[in-house]
Amino acid sequence: AFNKRLFNNPTPTLKEAYNRRDAAATRRKIIRERKKQVLTETQQLRDEILKLREQFRKKKENLLNINSMLKQSSKEVGGWNKIVFDLELKEPCTWNQ
Questions:
Q1: pLDDT at position 44, please?
Q2: How sure is the predictor about 2, in pLDDT bands with cuts at 50, 70 and 90?
Q3: CA distance linking residue 64 with residue 11, whole number of Å
Q4: 31-44: b (≥16 Cβ within 10 Å) or e
Q5: How far apart are CA 64 and CA 70, in angstroms?
Q6: What are phi and psi of 61, to 5 degrees?
């Protein structure tokens, strides 16, 4: 692997190659840093999505329970409506005769 320059006073052609190699290595370092940052952000988003999925699942389960309670409550109200209606028909008044 290329670790350091072998010549302190290279020819112009080798100097140009060294410079381009250094520039490419610098770009690679920047790209690796960006990759690391994006991987970190991706992991954070993944964790957040998993958390939101669990919250969604709990809310959906809660909604199913509420819908079940609402259905039962509606049956209860309907039952009482019938009882009230029947009792209203038995109340003494002129229009029930």
A1: 98
A2: confident
A3: 78
A4: eeeeeeeeeeeeee
A5: 10
A6: -65, -40
